[in-house]
Amino acid sequence: MAYRPSWFRDGYVFVSYAPTVGINKDGEELYVVDPRTGTRTNELDDKVLEDVKSVIFDKRTTPTSRWVEREKFEPGLQAVPVYFDDRSVGNFEDLLKDSEFEGFHAVTLGELVDDGRVVARPGHGSPSADLRTGTVPYIKVSDLRAGQVNINPTNRVTDIVAERFWRGKSSGLSAYDILTPIRTSKNIGDFAVLMPGQERLVLTKEILVLHAAENADFDNFYLLWAMSLRAVRRQWDRIVFMQTNREDVGSRYREILIPVAPNSKRAEEVSESFRSYYLGMQELRQSFLNHLSESDKYHIFLSSVEAVEEEIEEELDDM
Predict the structure, then answer these.
(1) pLDDT by residue for the chain (319 residues), tens digit each?
(2) Which of 16, 65, 80, 72 is nearest to 243 (CA)?
(3) Where are the domains of the chain?
């Protein structure tokens, strides 16, 4: 009979999703840093080893380890330890127990997409560098920052290239769509808002676009409010895997749990500050743009498609 250690559990796999294993990203030893002095010690920072010792010698798990049923290990996807770190899901469940969330219920993004309440789509594609000349802004993941879509006037494509990536005459985007990187970014799970006037864009394929459908009891501002909750944002950490040396989400964004309000009135109430902020910002922004357009003496670039086109016209006039 094969030897079975005392800590072994039949039908289960021990998983540690501790953040360190004693080696840094360059393959060198990773040492514990003394927080009082900010200097390295001689002790290796190996939290995985601590988890292993705990289960072998103390027969117990730690906050960064657990036993997982063996059948949950499908080839490929679920073989990543961090995927089993369900602390963020527990935090989300605790949030819904708060009196503030009375009547709310948990739904995954995938369920909302499947029942038609949320429209989810990837970006259009990634034009090669030699195609990036024209008037239509091309948006990369690095252009989504601090809740805004920041148009870079030096990164743009021609109309014919844009229409090729749009697969039609329009981008399919709408004002107040919410966007997040889903690959090659540390900002995966952080959402930016597409403002009016920015719809005519080409988005890199590494961006996810979410839009509340007409039959939903909530709008885009509610969706942004829900995605901005800390207990929702933390869930993204468990579904971001490394693909070679780049972060990747794939279709796992569908597993993110968000709270859904009991009715449209409650949804509007909790998201009012988000709605007021972006609508108010747009009102000020449009007023400022109107002022700038009354004179040709200004040279100020705002993050809008119109500004890109005006910039090009000025360049042509100066030739």
Answers:
(1) 678 899 999 999 999 999 999 998 888 999 999 999 999 999 999 999 999 999 999 999 999 999 999 888 866 556 788 999 999 999 999 999 999 999 999 999 999 999 999 999 999 998 887 777 788 999 999 999 999 999 888 888 999 999 999 999 999 999 999 999 999 888 999 999 999 989 999 999 999 999 999 999 999 999 999 999 999 999 999 999 887 778 889 899 999 999 999 999 999 999 999 999 999 999 998 888 888 878 777 766 665 555 555 555 555 455 4
(2) 80
(3) 12-82, 87-275
- Cα–Cα dist 179/148, whole Å: 9
User: What DSSP string runs through 27-60?
Assistant: SSB-EEEETTTTEEEEEE--HHHHHHHHHHHS--
Which residues in 237-255 are b (16+ Cβ under 10 Å) and which e? Answer: ebbbbeeeeebbbeebbbb
Burial label for 123, CB within 10 Å (0-12, 13-18, 19+), is buried
pTM: 0.85
Beta bridge partners of 145: 148
Using CA atoms, how far apart are residues 259 and 223, in angstroms rounded to an integer?
Answer: 9
Fold of domain 87-275: Adenine-n6-DNA-methyltransferase TaqI; Chain A, domain 2 (3.90.220)
